[in-house]
Amino acid sequence: MYKLTLTATLTLLTHLVSVAQFKMLGTSRDMGNGCIQLTPSVAYSEGLAYSHTKLNLSENFEIEFDIFLGDKEEGADGITFVVHNDQRGFNAFGNWGECMGYGRFNPNYPGNSIYPSIAVEFDTYQNINQNDPVSDHVAYLENGSSRHQSHWNNEDSDFNLEDNRLHNFRFRWDPSKKRITVLLDGTVVYKGQKDLINEIFDGKTEVIWGFTASTGRAHNLQYFCLRRLASAK
Ligand SMILES: [Ca+2]
Ligand SMILES: [Ca+2]
User: Fold this and answer.
1) pLDDT for 68-90, tens place per residue?
2) Structure pTM?
3) Which ligand neighbours the alpha carbon of 100 most closely?
4) How far apart are CA 64 and CA 21, in angstroms?
5) Beta partners for residue 117, in sequence order
6) Residue 145 DSSP one-character state
7) What is the pLDDT of residue 231?
8) What is the DSSP string of 96-107?
9) CA 223 to CA 56: how far, in whole Å?
C-alpha cells in the first residue's frame, strides 16, 4: 500500500537530471554518457559531486542513480550519498581514505567532516576503526562520523561490490512518516525513521545533496551515472 501510494505521488513531477546539474570537486569529472567519475583508480584520491539544486525535506522524493565501485576486489574505499547543510555549502568535504570524502578518522574527534548531515555509505574496504565488517557493506551515517553500529551485507561475509558492474541505488524520503528507505539493486538495505528536519538540520528544510568518494593506499575507479530525481509538490 505504501509503495503504491508513493509511486503514484512520484509520477506527479519527475525531473530529468543532467551532468551539468552537478558541481564537481577534487578528482570528480564528467566521463560522458551521463556518468561522473568521483575517483580514478589512483591512491589517495578524493572527489565529490553536488547537485546545484537543493532538496526540500518537507517533500516526498526518491533519488535514483547507478553507482560503480570498481573492478578490484581488494580496492578501496567506497562512495557515500550525502545530504547536508554544512556551512561550507557546495565546497564541503570530509577526509580521504576510509572517510570516503565524507567523514573523519576518529568518530570522537571533530576533525574535518561534513556536518550537519546524513549519508549512506557503500563501503568496499574493512576499517576496524569504523566498525566495518570484513565484507563490502552499506551503512547509514550521521553528522560526519564514518563509524556505524549496524550494516547491511546481505548476511554474506564474501559480499562484494567491486565487481565491475553498475549497481542501482535508490534513496527515498517520506516526510509524513519521517522514513528513509535505501535500496540497492532493488533490495531494501536500510530503513529508518528520523525527524531529519528537526533532529539533524535544526529546522532547515533546504539541503544540499550529492556523492562523495575517496581512495587510500588501495584504490578503485568509482563513479555514478544519472537516472532520475522524482519529487512531489
Ligand atoms: Ca571502510
Ligand atoms: Ca570487495
Assistant:
1) 999 999 999 999 999 999 999 99
2) 0.91
3) 1
4) 15
5) 84
6) B
7) 54
8) SGGGTTTSBSST
9) 25
Q: Is 72 left (phi over 0), alpha (psi -120 to 50) or beta?
A: beta
- What is the distance between the alpha carbons of residues 194 and 213, in angstroms, rounded to a whole number? 25
Domains assigned to the chain: 2-231 (2.60.120.200)
The model's pLDDT over 34-45, given as tens digits with 9 standing for 90+, comes to 999 999 999 999
Task: Determine the distance separating the centroid of ligand 2 and the alpha carbon of 210, expressed in angstroms.
Answer: 23
Place of cell 572527489: 47
Residue 76 CA to ligand 1 centre (angstroms) = 8
What is the structure's pLDDT at 204? 98
C-alpha cell at 196: 531529519
Tell me the longest C-alpha to C-alpha distance in the chain.
Answer: 47
Question: What is d(CA 217, CA 38) in angstroms, rounded to the nearest whole number?
Answer: 16
CA–CA gap between residue 12 and residue 219 (Å, rounded): 41
**Residue bearing cell 589512483:** 42
**Spatial distance between the Cα atoms of 231 and 228, rounded to a whole number of angstroms:** 10
Ligand 2 centre distance from Cα of residue 49 (Å): 23
φ, ψ for residue 7, nearest 5 deg: -60, -45
